[in-house]
Structures are given as C-alpha cells and as structure tokens.
Amino acid sequence: MTKRRAHYVLSTHWDREWYQAFQDYRYRLVRLFDGLLEGFESGELRGPFTCDGQAIILDDFLEVRPEKRAALEQLARDGKLVIGPWYVLPDEFLVTGEAMVRNLRLGREIARAFGTEPSNAGFACDLFGHVSQLPQIFRGFGIETGFIWRGVNNGWCNNLIWEGADGSELTCYRFTRNGYSDYAFEVREAGLPDAEFDAERTRERLERHLQYESENTDVTPLLLFDGGDHQEWDRPVYGILCERMDAGKKDYEVIHSTLDAYGAEMLKDRAKIKARFKGELRQPSIRTLESAHTIHGVLASRIWIKQQNASCQDLLTRWAEPFAAFAAQALGSEYPDGFLNVAWRWLLKNHPHDSICGCSIDQVHEDMKFRFSQTRQIGERLTSVATSAIAASVEGDIADEEIRVVLFNPATVPHEGTTEFDVEVPKDCPTFAEFFGYEPKPGFRIYDEKGNEIPYQRLRQETDRKKTRIRPTKFPEEYRINRIRVSLPVSIPAMGYTTLTVRPAKQGEPTRHPANNGLATAHNMMGNEYLEVFIAPNGTIALLDKETEQIYEDLLTYEDQADIGDGWFHGPAVNDQAYASTGSNAAIALIEDGPNVAAFRIRQKMLVPREFDFKDMVRSEELVEMEIDTVIRLRPGARHLDVETTIHNNACDHRVRVLFPTAVQAETFLTDSAFDVVERDIALAADNYQYNELDVEVRPMLTWAAISDKERGMAVVSTGQFEVAVRDQSERPLALTLFRSTRRTVLTDGEPEGQLLGPLHFRYRLIPFAGAADRIGLFRSAESLANGLRAVTLRRADQKIHATGVSLPARAGFLAVDGAAVLSSARMVGDALEVRLFNPNTKAGKASVSWPDKPKAVKAWKKAELVDLESKPVKDSKPALKAGTATVSLKPKQIVTLRLS
User: Fold this and answer.
1) Are the C-beta atoms of residues 147 and 175 closer than 8 Å to each other?
2) Which of 548-552, 743-747, 849-853 shows the lowest mean pLDDT across its residues?
3) How far is CA 323 from CA 493, 813, 829, in A?
4) Pairwise CA distance, residues 612 & 562, whole Å
5) What pLDDT, on a 0 to 100 scale, did the predictor assign at position 249?
6) Is residue 1 scored above 60 in pLDDT?
7) Cα–Cα distances in angstroms (integers) from residue 350 to residues 131, 368, 566, 751, in the given order
8) What is the DSSP secondary structure assignment for residue 118, as one 8-state letter?
9) What is the C-alpha to C-alpha distance for residues 656 and 236, in angstroms, rounded to an integer?
C-alpha cells in the first residue's frame, strides 16, 4: 500500500465581528497570536500558522502589539506564517467583482510587505456560496487551487474541478460534514464544551479522522485542516498530533504543512478527480448530516448596509479614481493613490461576510457606519478636488456676474438627453414674479459651450442657503445663495464634461421658456415617444411600450409578509397573512411637468400588522399604517421609467417586496453578477421539499434582473437591492425585495436595529423590451441610475482657488468604451492608465478603448498591453493601438485589464 501524506494545517477562522463586536474579538485575537509566538519561540509549535486566508488579522494584532512586527516578519520569511491571499474574506454576492480584485491585491501586498510571497491557496471556506467568476478572478492572480465548502453538493467526496463562467478551472478541495471545522469537531471535540482532554481518546479520534479523509479523497494527499471559528492553538491535542508525526507508521505520513503544499500535491493528481461543477455554486444544503447551508436570506438583511456599500463602491470606481486619473493626465495633478488606498481599506473592512451580510449583533453594524463614512468622505473629497480643478481649468475667465456650471458624465458612453441639476445663484440675484408678485423667482439664462441659450424647465427652488468658500491661507468665507433645480437637454462626452454659463437677467425680466406640450397627458398619465404611463387609483401603474404595443399592468404592487427569521434567513410563518397594496387608495400628485421631465408622486397608506406575536406565532391583529411614498419620473427619449420609493416603516417582523407582473412566457430569467450575467431557473426543483436547507425563490443580483420572450420583456434595474425573484406564477411577476425587518440576532434574546424602523429609501428603473435582453445596455443603464451626472458650480473667486495654470476646452471626454465590454475600473497604476473590462455575453467580441475628445495639450497613448489582475504583463497578448484607440478581443465572459501609457 502506498503511504499517503496527510497535510496538517493549523489555522483559525477569524470573523472580525459577528456574535461579538470587533474589539471583543480583537482581544481574543491578541491572545491567540501571543500563544502562537510563544509556541514558535519555545519550539513546541513546529510548523506554520495559516492566517485564515486573510491578511487583516495581522493589521488588527499589530495595532495592539506594534513591537511584534519584526517577529512576525521573521516568521513570514521563515515560512512559518502563511498570509493571504485575501485582505478580508468577503461575501461574493454582495460586493462587486472589482471589489474582490482590490481585496485580493491588498491581501497579497500585505504579505509581501512582511517579506514573504502571499499564499496561492484560493481560500473561501465559509462564504455563503460562490459567484461564477471566482475561478477566473483567482486565476488572474496565478491561483490554481480552491478551498470551498458551501454552495455545492458533492456527496462526501473532498475533491472537485470547478469551471468558471469563462472556462477557467480551479482544482478544489471541498470541506464536508462540518466544513472547515471538521477536524475541530472530530478530533479536538471542540463542539463538546465540557469534554476534558483525554490522550487516548484523542489518538483514536485522530485515526478515525485520517481514515475518513482517506476514504473520501480522490487524490493521494490528505488534508487535516484545524481551523475552527475563533479557536486558539490546542496544545494538548497538537502534542498527540506530533506523536503521530514522529511515529513513522506505514499508512500515513503526517506533516505540519500549508494549504499551498497540499494544493501543489493535489494538482499533480488532478486527473484522478471525478466530480466537475460549472458556473455559480449556490446549491442549498441537501444532506441532513451536513451543515453547509448557503444562507440565502442575507441578500436583503439590514438593507442600508447593501445600499451604502454599493454607493461607496460606485463613488470610488466611477468618480474618484477615473476623474483623479483624468486630472492627472490632463492637468499634471498628483494622482491621490495614498488617499484611495485608505478609502479602499475602510470599505473592505465592511466586506467580511458576517459584516456586509447584516447577520451580526447590532453593535457590529453600528460600527460599520463609521467605516462607510470614512470611505465616503475620502471619495467625495477626491472627486470634488478633481472635478473642481478640471472645471476651473476650462479656458476663459469667469466674469464677475457669471456662474460657470460644469456637468460631468462618469459613463463610458456619451450622455444625450435631459438632466436635472441645481443652479446656485447669489442671494441678491435679480428676480421676477408672476401676477401680483406672489413668489419671487431668481431670473437667469443658461448658455452652452458655444454661447447658445438653452431653454430650461424650472422644477423647484430653495432661497437664502448658506455656503462656505475655503482658501488655503484664509479663514472660511460664508456666503448665501439661492438654489434652483432645473432640467434641460445636454450632450456630454463619454467620461467627460461640458461647460454651461449662467448669466443673470435684469431685475423684473421674466426668464420663462415654452412649457407647452409637457409630458403629462392627463391628471394621472404621462408619456414620451416610447412609453405611456397610467396611474390607477390604488397606486399601481400600467406601462405601454409603444414600440412593441405591449401593456404591463399592476406594476408597483407592494407585498407585505411576515418575517420571523434573522439576518441569515427570511423566516416564513405557518400562520402568515400576506398583504397587498392593491387594497389601498392612493393620493396622486403631478409634481413636475414640462417638455424636459414629468413626475408624479403616489402616496398610499398600506395597513399591515404591527408585529409578529412569537407566543401564539401569528401576525398581530393590530394594524398600523405603513406610508409608501413613490415618485415616478419620465424624460423625453427615455425607454425607461425611473422610480423612487420611500417607505416609512413602523411595523416589525416583516418583508416588503415590490412586484412587477410581466406576463412573459419563460422558464428562466437573467440577473447580473460579479463580472457576469447568470441565467436562472424560475421553478424550484421538484424534490426541494426533501432538502436539508429549503431552496427559495429569491436569487441574487447586483444591479439588474430581466425576463423576456419574443413578444415582451421587463427589466428592473436598481442600486443597493440584491434580492430578486421571478415568481412561478402565470403572470411571472418580477419581485424585488425592498427590505427585511427582523428582531432575532445571533446568540442574543433579540435586538431592535434589525427592524429598520423609520424612513427607508429605494431607487429603481423599469425597462420594457422584447426579445433577448441587451446585457451591456442593462449594465450601462444600471451605471446611469447609480451615478447620474454631477454639477460643479464656480464663480470667479472659486476659479482663482482651483486654478491649475492649464487651459482645457469647454467640452472634453476622457475615456470611451465601445463594443462587447463593460467597464469595471479606470485608474492610474504607476504612470499608466489601467482599464479593466469584461464581456458579459455568451459570444466573443471586440471592444475598443479611446480618448475621443482628448484635449490637444494631452499626449496620446503610445503603448497598450494586457496585464493580469496584479498588473503583471500577460504573455503573447498584445492589443492593437491605432490613432489613439486600443482594440482588444474578448472571449465569452472574459475579464481583461488594459494598460495604456
């Protein structure tokens, strides 16, 4: 019999925060590392310690014990401290693919800062399922092996080949039974709190565990992974293991090892692995003896976390990074790499799965607010600095009475259409009034970059508002302005800007524009070239797609159900009563109407149970009014309807969804995912009732979901809403979860903050269509909804403050992407621009990246090359670069990173 090598890996699984807050866990972490250092120093601990696949625990330890850094660096150089590849272990479905790339880059950078190479073991032990593109992401860092648990049913076999969406493959070890804690349960008796150490019993349990691993592992090497939740090095049990290592038995060679060493041997035996899986791994747990739950309810827990995270990711990747790069290349400004690194660190600290999933105690999620705030402050500041510098550099001096408004477009395609923004005029700006002067209106005219006056639609105004102007060597200057919201048509280059000039009218001179032919066609109707909207008395809407002549009815139906679960799972109640808003009357108000935009406000008070009675397990008989305040908005030329909903939640223990019946004849639907689009079955498996973990109808999305047939289709685009379903009903309604309100938190008697009482805000967009969904178009629509446009307002004094000495044209663009690709990021890496793209389609295609509206003073790109996810050149692959345009071929679902210099 061939002697099999068993790799013992000492680790821990370190949730930074979960059933305890961060500082409680950190106290335990310091104790854990103190014990490890003592063991290494005494020689009692023979082999390496694996840092749970995440580097952040070293940061957390050294913040308390900074004097130990040299000791850790020496251990890392000696191979006794295994660091990375991640910075933190994230939830894969609640962050973008770009965030995962930054996460891995940072974790690997930290490992190298300790004097060692990062681990190349693709560790994802406790993540709640896996996105389809994780194999390609890992392979982009040179990682060939994966270590997974949840989301796949592979019997008791420990090995499988996982093929990602693009065909990239990972050779995987899959933890079974108790997952990554199997050794802790089966050998160390970690699940028996009162069990005292018994040497003989431990020897017997170790032999049984070895035998189990041997019988359920396809490849020759075995893995003994000792890494239970928050558990320290167990010295007595480790002593028994050392006995076994020294015994020299003929059956197994037990060594103190690493996941990398096991992975290297597993790769040699790859041909022996029988099981293969493709794409997303999100199967519910089937077997009752296995605890590998996918935990699907986290998609909508504490929804504010998801919304703030999505906002911060967009702020960094769509505003701060690309426009800082624009300023660096066009103005010679310093690229704020240090600030951006700090912002990303703050944000990534909110990405661990027990944090971003919203399934921890209240204090944990309260602490997250500060981290989001730090990210947002840095991102907003960097965006403001870059866009203000660009705006101030536009050619020509601002006259004393003029106001310069520079509109910025973060999309990689031009913006053509109407938009709304605020014009800030001085408090003493000339005014005019109607009739007997009931309401003064600031009078001004707006001109484009060519000097042509632009008619605008006045939407609302705020008067006498305080502003502050800050100069580097002076105290802050306070001044007063009037703020007027306007809508007008505008054209802005891809990832670029255009300049408007605002000039005051004479006192008493009306500055009106033709307001005939507004988009509102009745007291409850509006329409444009493509869509007609009708609002019913109960607040639902009917939407006519004029191109296909298809009508969609009962849209914006709100559904309220009991939720007796927690942060992990939506808990349906046996004695539930599901309420629908169709029984509520609505107040309908036209709040905007003109040629540029129309909007209706729909307000309804929906009666729902106050709470769930956990004694009698029924919903409360007492009903409370849950106010739903929705604004629907339509613009000329738009093929979509924008919706903003505010729900004043004063009920507990419930889930609220908004329904969009589609009447589409289809068995599957699409959602976007990290660097991908996934096709999903609508119906659940026929044997679902037999599963250990019931599958449910809700599925993950990042920004959009779509269902269609040849005749009709509907897409819902959102920002910060990650849970969606297409109900297996004849009308095939799309159901977007708005929020879940729960009281249960882990290891407590219940806490209040998960109930989400108070106002909750949601933004989404409805897009009717027919035939196959335009995947790239839907990504662009989601980008538009999330990021919109930004306006920078400058007066003469502001131009002097932000002056750069460089002259830019009144209109310019930075980056355009055409063809079969979606932008993931655009930023400076070193002295080059690095652009990451992905192809979400099932067919290969080409994409071009260009600077179509480049200022004359800026040098054209002279070199284009493909690099991997760590910015290392990719061999035998060179994109074409001609006349300032780089063209690259993308395979189906491929991610590429282009370096331009």
Assistant:
1) yes
2) 849-853
3) 14, 11, 14
4) 7
5) 86
6) no
7) 19, 6, 19, 21
8) P
9) 52
pLDDT in tens, 576-623: 999 999 999 999 999 999 999 999 999 999 999 999 999 999 999 999
Task: Give the residue carrying structure tokens 């031009």.
Answer: 414
Gap between the terminal Cα atoms of the chain: 59
Do the beta carbons of residue 469 and residue 797 sit within 8 Å? yes
DSSP conformation letters of 355-415: HHTS-S-HHHHHHHHHHHHHHHHHHHHHHHHHHHHHHHHBSSPPPTT-EEEEEEE-SSS-E
Question: Beta strand pairing status for 4-10 and 222-226?
Answer: parallel
Query: For residue 43, how many other CB atoms are within 10 A of its CB?
Result: 7
Q: Where are the beta strands (DSSP E) in 241-379?
A: 252-256, 276-278
Residue that the structure tokens 């063809």 belong to: 819
For range 323-346, the mean pLDDT? 97
The CA radius of gyration of the chain, in Å to the nearest whole number, is 29
The stretches of 803-862 forming alpha helices (DSSP H) are none
pLDDT at 291: 77
**What is the token pair recorded at 330?**
């066009």
Q: What whole-number distance in Å separates Cα of residue 750 and Cα of residue 418?
A: 48
Strand 713-718 relative to strand 704-708, pairing? antiparallel
**Separation between Cα atoms, residue 733 and residue 502, nearest integer Å:** 47
The tens digit of pLDDT for each residue in 638-689 reads: 999 999 999 999 999 999 999 999 999 999 999 999 999 999 999 999 999 9
Instruction: State how far the alpha carbon of 471 is from the alpha carbons of 164, 328, 379, 384, in Å.
Output: 53, 22, 21, 15
499 sits in which H/E element: strand 496-504
Q: Is 485 exposed, middle or buried (0-12, 13-18, 19+ CB in 10 A)?
A: middle
Rounded to an integer, what is the distance from CA 321 to the centroid of its chain? 16
- Angle of helix 56-64 versus helix 69-77 axis, rounded to 10: 150
Strands 81-82 and 403-409 come out as: unpaired
Q: Interhelix angle for 56-64 vs 97-113, to 10°? A: 50
AA letter at 380: E
Tokens 């982009």 — which residue?
Answer: 140
Tell whether the model's pLDDT for residue 833 goes beyond 60.
Answer: yes
Q: If we measure between CA atoms, which residue out of 270, 51, 274, 232 comes closest to residue 146?
A: 270
Q: Which residues contact 420 (CB under 8 A, 6 or more apart)?
A: 459, 485, 486, 487, 597
Cα dihedral sign, 650-654-660-661: negative
- What single string gives the DSSP state of each residue in 670-734? EEEETTEEEEEESSPPTTGGG-SS---S-EE-SSEEEEE-SS-EEEEEESS--EEEE-SSTT--E
Give the model confidence (pLDDT) of 16-36 as tens digits. Answer: 999 999 999 999 999 999 999
Where does the pLDDT of residue 289 fall: very low under 50, low under 70, confident under 90, or very high at 90 and above? low
- Region of 425 (left: φ > 0; alpha: ψ -120 to 50; beta: rest) is beta
Q: Are strands 252-256 and 4-10 parallel, antiparallel or unpaired?
A: parallel
Do residues 255 and 221 lie in contact, with contact meaning Cβ atoms separated by under 8 Å?
no
Average pLDDT estimate for 46-61: 97
CA distance 375 to 140: 26
Residue 156 pLDDT exceeds 90: no
pLDDT at residue 254 greater than cutoff 60:
yes
pLDDT at 853: 82
- Identify whether the C-beta of residue 409 lies closer than 8 Å to the C-beta of residue 428: no
Query: Burial letters for 221-256: b for 16+ Cβ neighbours within 10 Å, e otherwise?
Result: bbbbbbbbeebebbeebbebbbebbeeeeeebbbbb
Q: Locate tokens 């897009």: which residue?
A: 767
